[in-house]
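Re: the 558-residue chain
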Amino acid sequence: MVPLLTLALVWTNDLHHLVYTEIEARPEGIGNPIFHHGAWFWVNAAYAYLLMLAGTILLFISLFRAPLHYRMQMWSLALGASLPLAANLVYVTGTSPLQGVDPTPIAFSLTGLIYMISLWHLGFLELVPLARDSLIEHLSDGMLVVDHQMQLVDANPAAIQLLEIENQPLLGKTLADVFPALADDQDLFIVDGQPRQERTLSLSDKRILEVQTTRVQHPEGGFSGWVVNLRDITALKQAEETLLTSTESYRAIVESSGVPMVLTDYEPGGEVLYANQRAQELFQIEGKEAIGRPATDFYQDPEQRQAFLLELQNQGKVDGFELALRAASGEQLDLLVSARIIHYQGIPAILSTFQDVTEQRRRMDALIQERQAAESARKTAEITARQLQSALETLEQLATTDELTGALNRRRFIELMQRELNLARRYTRPAALILFDLDGFKQANDLYGHVAGDEVLRFLSNLLHENLRQTDYLVRWGGDEFVILTPETTHEQAGLLGEKVRALIAGATFPVVGKMTASLGLTMLRPDDSIDEVVRRADRALYQAKNQGGNCLVISDN
């Protein structure tokens, strides 16, 4: 509501002067006009800067939460967003050392340069993990983050140790560069929901790693990359191999293993035959209490047991199957289960090992919430930037155009004239200036009233805008006087244009007053001219046209 109300107040400022109480030219005649601000100007300024300040604060909060090697990206974003805000604040408050010059466009140019450097050299749009330290930094299992181009975005210390890549730079490397054996196994990265895969990787000590890939979806949809989990299962594999030859050796191994293991019969009910010490601790139950109990007693949803058995029957094994089980206390346990069918004391049985991911699941939920909060902050920053750009464009429009006619004002005319004089001095490029006014406008204004006079001036401005070249500039000089600045125009072309304007005005029918004519003075720009000298020559030519009875063009002798 505040932006809409502000726009309405700007349009109707002459009725209440709440936005600008007065706009006056500088005494020296060059530079921005002096704006005397009304009460609502400061209300709107406070509202806009409060929104921009809130977005900037959120941006800096995200900056200090980001991992160290991503902070250069965040610093570039923060610096780029702060420069236009600071420049505009200095300009609006009148504390700029460059009096009469708005530094905000320069600040936006610097912002664009900073963002361009960020895009090309800092990987500004790459996947940035949030809450990394609290989620994966201290996990015992290895975790890699790979983007959709198979570039390695992040790796926790456990993964670096498992893959023996301590001395290699990671950011920006492809998975094939860092670890070809893993990257060559494309089956891990093709199907969404790919089950956990076991691979014997070419490591120096021939360790066996269990690998699982999970597709990462963006919160608003779309594919972002993969999370690759690595787990050293060398001890487990050795335990399984030993189990095939010796039950007693099996018991010794599984009891000393740090992996929770449970043995159940192959029947649908799944009676518990054995649980090692780590499994007893996980499910909060003593071994003698667990033996003989149906496995379904430990399921939150017994139907998950049927899905688990169906997967085991179809594949012959289960790897990384997600189950929601429960401890004896009723606490829910989020587990990843790997299982094999073995023979135990002459009967088929299921040997299951468990990985507790309850805490990781909770942290992942927290990570998703934080990502959503960060995305919301980013959108807020974008909205703030758009609002600032819109406000600056509105100010620029007000500062360079005449409110009544839409023609350029004197401030913009001085800028254009100075540029054309510079071009005339440096490259000898021809340009002309035509100064004209309406014959008898004062009498018509007195006869029909100022409202009718304003309609005449608006009609005249629209008429000329529709018929002048795109390279010509129409300026309201004051009252009913107008200036046409024509770059890249020879003496002959300027004369033809002046005559065209005279005939166009004489042939038009103006609202309320009917027919009118104009007197025009034309002069060419010279390399040694000043702005005042050019205007004086055109004014003398206009005066001669008036003395000749009006409705004519007089060309100044250059």
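Residues 127-131, 191-196 have pLDDT under 50 and may be disordered.
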